[in-house]
Amino acid sequence: MAGADAVPLLEVDGLDVTFDTLRGPVHAVRGATWSVHQGETLVVLGESGSGKSVSLHAVAGLLPANGHTAGRVRFQGRDVLGLRGAPLRRFCAENYGMVFQDPMSSLDPSFTVGDQIAEILRVHRGASAQDAWERAVELLGVVRIDDPGRRAKQYPHELSGGMRQRVMIAMAIALDPPLFLADEPTTALDTSVRGAVLETMIELRDRLSMGVVLITHDIGVAAAVADRVAVMYAGRVVEYGTAEQVLHEPGHPYTAALLGSLPRLRRLRSTLTAIPGAPPNAARLPAGCSFHPRCRFATDRCAEELPVLQPSGGGQVAACHWTGRLTADGDLGYWREGGEPLVDARPGDAEQPFVVVENLVKEYPLGSGRKARVLRAVDDVSFTIPKGTTLGLVGESGSGKSTTAMIMSGLLAPTSGRVVIGGVDIARLSGKAMRDVRRDLQVVFQDPYSSMDPRMTIGQIVDEPLLVHKRGSKPQRRDRVTELLDLVGLDGDYAGRFPHQLSGGQAQRVAIARALALEPALMVLDEPVAALDLSIQAQILNLLRDLQARLGLTYLFIGHDLAAVAYISDRVAVMSTGKIVELDRVDAIYQRPAAAYTRQLLDAVLDPEADLGRYRDRPTTRTEEPCVPSAPATP
Amino acid sequence: MAKLLRQRLLQLVLVILGLSSLVFFLVRISGDPASAIAGADADPETLAAIRSNLGLNEPVLVQYVRFLGDLLVLDFGDSYQYRSDAMALVLDRFPASALLTLLAMLIAVGLGVPAGVLGAVHRDGLLGRAVNGLAILGQSVPNFVLGLVLIMIFAVSLGWLPSFGGEGVMSLILPAVTLAAFICARQMRLVQAYTLEELSKGYVRTANSLGYSTRRIRYRHILRNVSVPMLSLVGLELGQFIAGSVVVESVFSWPGLGRLMVESVTARDYPVLQAGVFVIGVLVVLINFIVDLLYQVVDPRLKAQLVTR
Q1: pTM listed for this prediction
Q2: Taking CB atoms and an 8 Å cutoff, what residues of chain A touch B308?
Q3: Residue B303's pLDDT is what?
Q4: Cα A108 versus chain centre, distance
Q5: Do B224 and A124 touch (CB under 8 A)?
Q6: Which residues of chain B make contact with A93, given a CB cutoff of 8 A?
Q7: What's the distance, CA A253 to chain centroid?
Q8: A284 and A210 in one domain?
Q9: β-strands A416-421, A96-99 pairing
C-alpha cells in the first residue's frame, strides 16, 4: 500500500451530484470525499440509494444529461470534472477500466467477446484487425479464461456468468489503465464464482500496479478485498478508514448497525439487530444527521445539527457527533454478539412431518423429435418438514431450488414423485381440490412489486384472498386487513396506498400479510429477502421468525445466501444440479459439512471478521504465467 | 435448418389451401360471374349457357373439388374477362407491383430507420418531437387521401410528375411515396421505441465507459441490436404493402397486380382472383422464411437455438 503522503491516484473531494427531475432537483451525493492510491483497493460500501454508484459514475463521466456535479475530482493531480465531450471520453477510456454489475447486459449481445475486446484496441490504439484480435485472445488468458482462442469467438450468451465478468475485466484492462473502477462486480454472480473473480481482480491490481475502487453493498466482499473503506449513507460518506478500523471497530452507529444486520454463520444463536425504518429518500432528507431517525444512540442534537467527519477512537473518521464517546465506551461493539439469544422452542415433531416430499422429479424436454434429450431440473428430491419448523433450501442458480419451490407452491406439476402437504398429495391435484389446498399453502416471491397489481391499493391487495375465498362481510374483512397489516408491522394507513409508494421492505411486508390472510399452515418463501437491502433484510428475517413463533407456521425457505438461509432455518437442504447433496440440522451443516459441495459453499461465505483481508492479503501465488505483455504499440 | 424448411413447406401448403378455399367461397357468395360477363340485361338463356360453359351450374361442392384438383397441378384456368390464361395475366402484372413495393419499402426503411434513431437520441429536442409528429401524421392519413393530395399538388398544380400510368421512373414516384408513407411513419415510431430501449441498456454504458464516439455507439452497437426486432417488423409489413398496393394502384392507375385483383373482383373473374391470391400467398410465406433466415444472421442467440434444436 502506498504511504499516506504520496499523491493519490484519484482524489474525490466534496463531490456533489444533483439530478434535475420533474419534481425538482434531487441531491444524490453530498460532499463525498475519498481517495485511492496506486496498488490500493478502496471499497465504497452502501445500500441502494446511498449514492455509491452515482459517485462512481460522476467520476467516470457516465452521468445522464440531467446530472450535475460540484466539488473536485482529481486524477493524478489533474481536474476531471472540468472535462467534457471527446476529451473526457478519451481521458476516461485511457485512465479507468470499468466493470459493472451485470456482465450479461454490459456486453453487446450481437458481437463475439473477442470482437468486443479487439474493438477497444482498434479504436484507441489504431491496432490492425489481426493484432487486436491476437491481443484480445491474450487478454482473455490474462483474466484466466481457459481456451481463450475458442472463447474469443463466442458470444456473451454462450459464456457463464463468471466468465462474462472476466471478459468485462479483460475489456477494462485492455488499455492498461492505472485505475480500475468496479461497480458491484460480483453481485450478479453465484457465491462460488465470486471469490475467484475477486481474486483475479486483486491479482491484476498487483501485476499491473493499478488502484482499485470497488463499489458494493456486500460487507463480506468489502472485508475480503478492501484496504480502505468509505461507508455511504443517504448521499454522504459517514465513515472512512482502513478496513480493520471501519469493519472491526466501527466509529459510526450506521456501520455498526449494518454489521449487526448481517446474518453470520458464527452467530446463528442470536437474533439479528435490524435497523428500524428505511433509508430516507434523497429528495426529502431528515434534518441534522440523516441517520438519526433510525439510530439507537440519537439525541436531540443529532436531529438538529449535521455532523461532519471527525476522528473517532480507532483512527478513522466518522460523521457522528458522538463517535468519540461511543467508541471509547465500546457501545458500538454490540454487532459482534448480535441481539437476544434465539428461543429454540420449536416443537418440531419429526415423527409426524407436515410436508413429505418423495422422489420428486421435474424434467424439461430439450428440443423435440427422436433425438430429444431431457433436462432434469429436479432429480429425485426427497425431504420432510415437521410442523412449525423451517426447512432451508440453499443452492446456486440452476440448482433446481426455484423449480422445487414452484412445485411445492402447486404452480408447476412434477414429472413424477409425491408432494404431501398436511396429508394431501398435491402433485396430481387439479381444479377445486387444488384450490382448497392453496388456502393452506401460500407463497412469497423475491420481487414484491411484480407480485402485486400496481393499480390496486394495499388494502385491496391484502383483501383479495379474503374476498375470493368468501371470508366474512365487508366490514369484517376490513378489520382483518388492518389486523394483518399490524401483524407485519405496518400502520393501518397503508391500506390506502399503492405498491409504488412503498419501499422494498414495506412491499415485502404487504406480500407476507397477503400470504397470511387465509391463515395458511405452510409458507413457501422463494428468495424473499434477496432483493432487499441488508438493513431491511434483517427486519424481514426477524419478522418471519417472529410470525412463525406466534402462528406456528411451517416454512420452506429458498435462498442462495447460506448465512441468511441458516439464520431462519432449523434444517438446511443443500441443492446442486437438481439433487439434494446434503440435508441436516443447521449447526451440523455448519460444523461438520459432509458433502464437498457444502464445504465449498461454506468456504465461499465471506464473514467480516473471519475473512477480513482474505483476498487482499493473499500473496500472488500464481506466477507461472508470463507477465502481462504491453498493448500493441501505437503506430 | 432442414426442420425449418419442412415447417415452412407445410405452412405454405396450409396457407395456400386456406386462402384459396376462403376466396373460393367468398366470391361465390358475392354474386354471379355470368351476369358480369354478359351484361346486366342479358336474357336468361344466355346466362345459363355461360354458366354451363364455365361449369358454374354444378353444385358448389363439386366445383370446389374440381377447383382443388386444378390447384394441385397449378391450373387456374382462363380468365373470364380476357379469355387467356389467368396465371399468365397475373405474372404479367406482377413485375410492376414488385417494382412499386420494393421502391416503397426502400423509401420506408431508408427514411424511417435513421429518423427513428435520431428521434430517440434527441427525444426531448425539436428533432424528437418532429419525428413524433410526423409519425402520428403519417399513420393517421389514409393512403388514398394522401395519394389524391399528392396528385393535386405535384401533378395538377405543379405539373412536375404524371398522375397515372406505368411508364418510366417519373410515374413511379408518386405511388411509391404514397405507399411508403404509412409504413415509414410506423417504422419511425417503432425504431424510436426500440432505440430508446437499447439506449438504457448496460452495453451502451460500457461503450461509453470505453470512450467510444457517439456515432460508433449509435450506428455500430445500437443499430445492430435494433435490427433484430426491426427485421420481423419489415417481414410483417411486406404483407401490408401488398394490401396497401391494391388501393394505391387503383388511385394511380398503376398496371400492377393490385389493380388487376380489384378489376377481377368487380368482374367476378374467379380464375384471375385465385391465381393472384396464390401468388401473393406464396410470396408472403417466402418472405417470412427469408426473414427467419436473416434472423440467424443478425441475432447470434437464435443461431445457437436453431443449431441445438
Answers
A1: 0.84
A2: 366-367
A3: 58
A4: 24
A5: no
A6: 209-211
A7: 21
A8: no
A9: unpaired
| A257 and A357 both lie in a single domain | no
Give the end of a domain, one of A209, A228, A248.
A248
Give the pLDDT confidence score for residue A2 in this predicted structure: 44
Last residue of a domain, one of A196, A230, A248: A248
Q: Are the Cβ atoms of B206 and A62 closer than 8 angstroms?
A: no
- B93-108 tens-digit pLDDT: 888 888 888 888 889 8
In this structure, are A443 and A479 located in the same domain? Answer: yes
Provide the residue type at A498 as one letter: F
Q: Count of domains in chain A?
A: 3
* pLDDT for B295: 79
The CATH class for the domain spanning B91-268 reads mainly alpha
Kindly give, in sequence order, each residue whose CB lies less than 8 Å from that of residue A508, ignoring residues fewer than 6 positions away: A444, A448, A528, A529, A532, A536, A540
Residue in A106, A157, A164 to test binding to B, most B beta-carbons within 10 Å: A106
Of B201, B209, B224, the CB nearest to A62: B209
Q: Do B298 and A110 touch (CB under 8 A)?
A: yes
Instruction: Note whether A512 and A595 are same-domain residues.
Output: yes
Low-confidence ranges of chain B (pLDDT < 70): 1, 40, 164-167, 302-309
How many CB pairs (< 8 A) connect A and B?
Answer: 78
Identify the closest residue of chain A to B121 by CA–CA distance: A65
- A110 in B contact zone (CB under 8 Å): yes
Q: For the segment B10-32, what is each residue's pLDDT rounded down to a tens digit? A: 888 888 888 888 888 887 777 77
**Residue A343 domain-assigned (yes or no):** no
A410 lies in the same domain as A548: yes
Residue A101 located in a structural domain: yes
From B203, B210, B228, residue closest to A120, measured CB to CB = B210
Which of B206, B211, B213 has the CB atom closest to A106's CB atom? B206
A124 interfaces chain B, CB cutoff of 8 Å: yes
**Nearest to A427, CA basis, from A389, A378, A386:** A378
Which chain A residue has its CA at the smallest distance from B297's CA?
Answer: A110
The per-residue pLDDT for B29 is: 78
B286-298 pLDDT per residue, tens: 888 888 888 777 7
Q: Which residues neighbour B267 within 8 Å (Cβ) at sequence distance 6 or greater?
A: B33, B36, B37, B80, B81
- CA of A287: how far to CAs of A239, A293, A306, in Å? 19, 10, 8
Which of A89, A102, A367 minimises the CB distance to B308?
Answer: A367
Residue A631 lies in a domain: no
**Angle of helix B223-251 versus helix B270-298 axis, rounded to 10:** 170
Q: What is the CATH number of the domain that holds A233?
A: 3.40.50.300
pLDDT at B74: 80
pLDDT given at position A350:
58
Domain of residue A264 covers 253-336
Flag if A89 and B213 touch (Cβ within 8 Å). yes
A227 & A186 share domain: yes
- Closest residue to B203, CB basis, from A94, A106, A367: A106
Going from the first residue of chain A to its last (635 residues), give the mean pLDDT of each consecutive group of 10, the final group possibly shorter: 68 94 90 93 93 93 90 92 88 93 91 95 94 96 93 92 94 95 91 90 92 95 96 95 94 94 85 87 88 93 94 90 90 81 58 88 78 84 93 91 90 90 83 82 90 92 91 91 91 89 89 92 92 88 91 93 92 94 90 92 91 79 42 40
Q: Cβ(B154)–Cβ(B174) under 8 Å?
A: yes
Residues A313 and A457 in one domain: no
* Separation of alpha carbons B113 and B119, rounded Å: 10
pLDDT per residue as tens digits for the range B213-234: 888 998 889 988 888 888 877 7
A633 in a domain, yes or no?
no
Subunit contact B213:A110, Cβ cutoff 8 A: no
Grid-cell match 443478425, residue found? B298
List beta partners, residue A270: A341
pLDDT of residue A630: 42
> Which chain A residues are within 8 Å of B213, Cβ to Cβ?
86, 89
pLDDT at A55: 94
- Shared-domain flag, residues A161 and A204: yes
How far off is chain B from A369, nearest CA to CA, in Å? Answer: 9
* Residue spans of alpha helices (H) in A310-457: 323-329, 401-408, 431-440
Interface contact A157-B304, CB threshold 8 A: yes
Check residue A116 and give its pLDDT: 96
